[in-house]
Amino acid sequence: MGDTGFPQADAENDFLRARRRQVLSRLAAWLRREPDDVNIMLPFDEVVDALGRTGERRLGPQVIRLDSIVGSVDRTRDFDRRFRPMSGRLRERWERLARAQRRGEPIPPIEVYRVGDLHFVSDGHHRVSVAHALGQATIEAYVTEVRTKISANGIRFRGDLIVKNDRRLFLERVPLAGAARAAMVVTDSWNYTILSETVEAWGFRLMQDECRFLNRTEVAARFYAEEFEPVVGMLRQAGLIGDRTEAEAYLAVSEQRYRLMRTHRWDDDVITALRKG
Length: 277
Known about the structure:
This protein is of the alpha/beta class. The protein is built from ten helices and six strands.
């Protein structure tokens, strides 16, 4: 339905249209059997906890893209991921803001936290919802930037936080930097735990050999230089990395090395297992 030119009627239609789209989106997700978190906005506290908060700073007023707003500080049950209202109880306030925008009345900026390239609303959820419904691309906001231990890159859904949390814990146990840090990437979050224990066991054997204590940073640096890089280099030359990450390929050969120590087998079956990971 097109605009009537009457703010009251158009605001009512805006709300009904937003609610209808929200219900249709839920239906489409059900038909496609998508995970439950596809249409859920990201909770700010869970994201920051997974990434490890280190500090924050106020950046002041800015114009931000609406599609960069992916979550909320405390209103995750009122709106879906695209800030469409989840129920009719928001209607009165929502339509009041829609009428004001259609009349060209000044709307105060929202307030958001920025984590990487993502924004989370602390005040102004209805304003964001109305802006989406009216087809706007940007919105004015007071921005507070939150700094974290690891990057927010790659976060799309709530399930991604499990991988981020496990990576943060891995980097606390195995403090790497630069190229070494970038190389230690796995897609299955549980593999971060396995990789942590692998590095720690390697470091324990190293300290026994050298009869001296090494801290976590020293162990991590020497593991990467003396164990990880040489093994990955051989795997690359042998064409055994495939479509896995380097860390995943290393874990695969590490598992086979343990099996070799127990069975003394190194044959085509072992090579096949290495290729499959």
